[in-house]
Amino acid sequence: MGRKWNNIKEKKASRDANTSRIYAKFGREIYVVAKQGEPDPELNRALKVVVERAKTYSVPKAIIDRAIEKAKGGSEENFDELRYEGFGPDGSMVIVDTLTNNVNRTASEVRAAFGKNGGNMGVSGSVAYMFDATAVFGLEGKTADEVLELLMEADVEVRDILEEEEAVIVYAEPDQFHAVQEALKNVGINEFTVAELTMLAQNDLVLSPDSQAQFEKMIDALEDLEDVQQVYHNIDLDD
């Protein structure tokens, strides 16, 4: 799973470098999840997961609180959760998750970002079947065996635990996100280099330098769109 971890790190580094954009995206996601259920992270597990993810990106508490208060205030602003799938250079695959208050605008912008950068949108299901929804945690200061023992004692199931580049990486089912995090916090592990819900490609693809440059331009164009929350792909960007 080394390449998968590298792609997650690359994605997080990219988002960390664009703080205003990431703050806005998390603010929108927190608002939507808070509005869908109880606007209290302790009573709304989905909201708690989003808030915990936001903390790993250093989203200020003021932004988190403002989004929750907006939901509490009964704002009439509504967003649709839409997923787009498509292809880039040389068989690369891309999933784009969005939150939008204007479906036509978002579809047009996503299609244009693909088309102007050597890609094209596919139909629903054309790409997603090659990805697995996954909860991923990165932490330091423990070995993989120590983390495995801790999670086994807490009766928490995971897919895999690996040591990569001085970090321990935990892969689990998405519905185990909260259980994994709480089990680790209960033994004093409160800092995570990554705590994320993601879509991991079943097989990674390595592009030629020219194709990779075009691919990265396409990904940048998609991530720059206001309505885009997450972009997942099957390209190993470290080679």
TrEMBL record:
UniProt superkingdom: Bacteria
Gene3D superfamilies: 1.10.10.200, 3.30.70.980
Keywords, ordered alphabetically: Cytoplasm, DNA-binding, Transcription, Transcription regulation
Domain TACO1/YebC-like second and third per the UniProt entry, residue ranges: 80-235
Keyword Kinase: no
Family per similarity comment: Belongs to the TACO1 family. YeeN subfamily.
HAMAP family: Transcrip_reg_TACO1, Transcrip_reg_TACO1_YeeN
Name this polypeptide is given: Probable transcriptional regulatory protein H4683_000088
Lineage, broadest ranks: Bacteria, Bacillati, Bacillota, Bacilli, Bacillales
